Amino acid sequence: MSRPELQAPPEIYYGDSEAIKYTNNTRIQQIQAEMTYRALELLNLPPDEPAFLLDIGCGSGLSGEILDEEGYLWTGVDIAPSMLEVALEREVEGDLFLQDIGQGFGFRPGSFDGAISPRPSSISVIQWLLNAETSHPTSSPPHRLTRFFTALHSALRNPSRAVLQFYPTSDDQVQLITSIAQKAGFGGGVVVDYPNSNKARKVYLCLFVGGGGAAQVPQGLDGEAAEEAGARAKFEKRRQREVRKERSGKKKAAKGKEWILKKKDLYRRRGKEDVPRDSKYTGRKRKTVF
Amino acid sequence: MVRLITHNLLACHVKGCTSNNFPLKLQDVQIALREAEFNEDFLRGFIPRLEWGALVQAAREVGDDSLPAEVPEMLDDEFLKQLHHVLLEIHIDEGSMVCPNCKHVYPISSGIPNMLLAEHEIG
Ligand SMILES: [Zn+2]
After folding, report:
1. Interface TM-score (ipTM) > 0.95
2. How far is B73 from chain A (nearest CA, A)?
């Protein structure tokens, strides 16, 4: 079975129709949601403090919608214009940038409280850095990884973390990636969830700036077959906690009607209430000033 | 969409362009206004991260001159509401961001800035 990221870089692989199909796939939505909650957990942000996050390889905004829901402000970067267009249509709240992270980026030092990249293998950003190649010497994977980690380290606050999901194919690859991240100034390491399950195994590069607010790399989740169901139950619990927090007024102030409608629509799109999904996204009217 | 909060964090990343590469000048912009949720804690926490002069300048470039030249000592409600509007409710849909140093143009089209560099511009 060949993996999509080995066939073509994402900006080619995800044409317009692919981007829409991808985004509307319920299974993909669920997987992205689970990965996003886990990445947020590993970020270990101080509780009840607002945060500004960077979503690397934000794609069509499936993870961004969860960041919106959780009350985070964010900026997303992606190499695939068709995916970004879908994200725009879906009216995620974050700013979206067309960017090849292998070229580095220009966010000022200390811009973000954390960075996440909760991605399935088809759009894993580390894989993107490893596989993209042209004949130009500065386009080699080590160069691209170096530019990316250096720019990322600088853009993050001290202390903070970056949690990047990846799909290493060998120990050498892990070694290459972590050594370049270390040279760029990061601490941290690799977190493996469900190491004994082929299906549920997930690998995260958990990078610390300035200690990342903890002395040790977090532990991976463990357990055998119950993994996915178990993980989902956990997220549901967390979600219920969030709802309770919101109800008791701890998390956010009362929301406007428009906002609530939008969130309802969001849940509907993700198939939470048994409402048929609407494939058309209704655009809110925007007031053009100039 | 580019909001001024993100614009305020963005410097030019062209190879060798390391000084006077911020803020990117906003040119020929079309903006849209979208209501955003007011979050006082976020704003208070974010102010130290802002380059204030750059924010005031960028706001003027998109036609908003409501911000004071300096951050006031007293962060009252009126000021925070104004800051909220400038940072989070003004969206740049079209136009370009131009580096004051190397003059690289980052075009913004349909709300998405193109930050891709040519091979010779990569550091
Ligand atoms: Zn420049």
Report:
1. yes
2. 22
